[in-house]
Amino acid sequence: MENKRLNIFLLIPLVVTFSFGMDSYIPFIIVIKSQLNLSASIVQLSMSIYIFALAVGQIFIGLLSDYIGRKKALYLSTILFMASSVLCGFSTSGTQLIIGRFLQGIGACGLRACTYTMVKDCYDGDQASAYLTRLYSAVSLSPMIAPLIGGFVGGIWGWEAIFFMMVILGIALLGCIYPLPETYSKQTEKTLKQHFKDIGAVFRDKQILFYGCLSAAGITAMFCFVSSMSYIILLQYHLSQEYIYLTFVICGIGMFIVGMLSKKIISSLGSKQALYYSFGVSVFLLIIMSILSLLGDLNFSMYVLFSMLLISIAIILNGCSISMGVASRKTLIGLGISIIGVLGYGIAAISGWVLSLLPINTFSYGLVVGTYYLFMIVISLIAIKPKKAIIN
Predict the structure, then answer these.
(1) What gap in Å lies between CA 336 and CA 340, rounded to an integer?
(2) How far apart are the first and last CA of the chain?
């Protein structure tokens, strides 16, 4: 590990951006649907394509950061995020919006992947897990703040202004990147072609595959919640848009509290136990939630409570999965973290697409997310047996 230390306050804006890009325009998805004359499936695709870009972009950004360094990759990702935000703001059709959202997701994934990789460059074991979960707690600020800011800006200047606001955010990110140290030290000089050959080797690492799939469980829970929440609140519970903001704030507070307690939880239980306990509790919550939904007994307050607990626990699940997935690797850490991201966001995007094919309600939400959690139980028992991670 490098002896360099990272200022968490400079990293927080970098990891919040990818979540901010997903959350800030959600209050206006119905307005966008109406003004651009789009179908509900196209609007849903504008969210899913962002997550899909986060997935597929991971592997290339991770590869790039192992080739040119973390800071240069951060600069390139920020510039792409800004340029694509301009494209989204000037969109006059669904095609333009989807292309812009895809490119925006690529830029956002670079910010996420490089930031987490810098943490793994400098820290190891439980210390890395605690640091990563603290960053996830910062991400929890986005569901509280982004819809409120997006709602305020969009309410005054229109939904297009939300994307132009992200350009201003990108300028601020450049200022955060500049003082950060370059944490990557090349151990051997490789050509770009040799780096591409490394992809196959890392994809064969069962430890990365296993923990990447575990990370996907938490990301799936978060994304399916965010993408379905507006429909559930407005159409299933027949409540006003103000309840969308309220739900974001409540869930964000829960995520923030869990994130702040994560260091103590991981120090007490260890990364592995914290991960498996969080997964087990999540399965229990999903089973109860699905049963109550099927019986018609899940009221709005219970929906918010179960969702808050589920996505808050996902913070620990995601942070520990990333750290443990690359714990035993000495090289290609950036690529390893990126492949974990590919699995996490790729599976989440597919799950969101499946959810869009169903009647969007609380039962469908619990069914889609719960099915993947149960699938992971089967995988962990009979399919993938990872090597023991090096965790203190």
Answers:
(1) 6
(2) 15
Angle, CA of 258, 336 and 377, to the nearest 5°: 60
Structural domain boundaries of the chain?
A: 8-179+194-383
CATH number of 8-179+194-383: 1.20.1250.20
3-state DSSP assignment of residue 284 = helix
| Tokens read off for 344 | 């996490």
265: amino acid identity, one letter: I
List, run by run, the mean pLDDT of 10-residue segments along the chain (392 residues).
67 84 81 84 82 80 79 93 95 92 91 83 73 70 78 89 93 91 68 70 80 86 85 88 84 82 81 86 91 90 93 84 75 73 83 84 90 83 51 40
CA–CA separation, 36 and 92 (whole Å): 6
SS3 assignment, position 292: helix
Q: What is the pLDDT of residue 308?
A: 92
- Provide the pLDDT for residue 213: 85
- Contact between 243 and 307 under an 8 Å Cβ cutoff? The reply is no
> What DSSP state is assigned to residue 291?
H
Residue 21's identity, in one-letter code, is: G
What is the crossing angle of helices 8-23 and 125-139, to 10°?
A: 50
